[in-house]
């Protein structure tokens, strides 16, 4: 069985992420969406909330599975008996960082390959950070997110506003 891991923060999951997940699912027997806790970022959603949302928006992809993970990506890939990491590329700046990570991972785990999928052009500008910023200023995020994700972002920001008083 060919298993791929598509890791990311997914805070929130965008239509660009969903596009990569769907395309990966056509190439592999199983795609595991690995939701990581990135300490360098301050997430809007907890890892558990992101897992729940990803399960909801990928429910129509029968060979997709969602799991949260901590630690090294390579360890997560090995634990899941996968041999491929999938990364999406939007621009040349993504490539430089992703190539460095892929080469580092290859040194640590020579049996695991990384493949890069270029994003669909209609999502090439899209990032979770941009979506969150638009949402924080009450902008319309419906063109960037699955309806369930857009509703959760709005609800989370309202909750956050109420908590701040």
TrEMBL record:
HAMAP family: PPAT_bact. Its cofactor is Mg(2+). Residues 5-133 form the Cytidyltransferase-like domain. It catalyses: (R)-4'-phosphopantetheine + ATP + H(+) = 3'-dephospho-CoA + diphosphate. It comes from the Bacteria. Its main location: cytoplasm. Belongs to the bacterial CoaD family. It is found in: Cytoplasm. ATP binds at residues 9-10, 17, 88-90, 98, 123-129. Transmembrane segments: none annotated. Homohexamer. This is Phosphopantetheine adenylyltransferase. Pathway: Cofactor biosynthesis; coenzyme A biosynthesis; CoA from (R)-pantothenate: step 4/5. Keywords: ATP-binding, Coenzyme A biosynthesis, Cytoplasm, Magnesium, Nucleotide-binding, Nucleotidyltransferase, Transferase. The record marks 17 as: Transition state stabilizer. It holds the Pfam family CTP_transf_like. Its EC number is 2.7.7.3. SUPFAM superfamilies: Nucleotidylyl transferase. GO terms for molecular function: nucleotidyltransferase activity. Reversibly transfers an adenylyl group from ATP to 4'-phosphopantetheine, yielding dephospho-CoA (dPCoA) and pyrophosphate. Substrate binds at residues 9, 41, 73, 87.
């Amino acid at each position: 069985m060919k298993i791929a891991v598509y890791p990311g923060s997914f805070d929130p999951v965008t239509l660009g992420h969903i596009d990569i997940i769907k395309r990966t699912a056509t190439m592999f027997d199983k795609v595991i969406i690995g939701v990581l806790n990135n300490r360098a970022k301050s997430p809007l959603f907890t890892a558990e909330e992101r897992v729940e949302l990803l399960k909801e928006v990928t429910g129509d992809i029968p060979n997709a599975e969602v799991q949260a993970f901590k630690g090294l990506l390579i360890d997560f890939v090995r634990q899941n008996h996968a041999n491929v990491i999938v990364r999406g590329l939007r621009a040349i700046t993504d490539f430089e960082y992703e190539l460095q990570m892929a080469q580092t991972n290859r040194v640590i785990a020579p049996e695991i390959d990384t493949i890069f999928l270029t994003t669909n052009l209609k999502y090439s500008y899209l990032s979770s950070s941009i979506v969150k910023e638009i949402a924080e200023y009450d902008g319309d995020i419906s063109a960037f997110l699955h309806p369930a994700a857009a509703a959760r972002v709005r609800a989370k920001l309202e909750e956050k506003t109420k908590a701040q008083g």
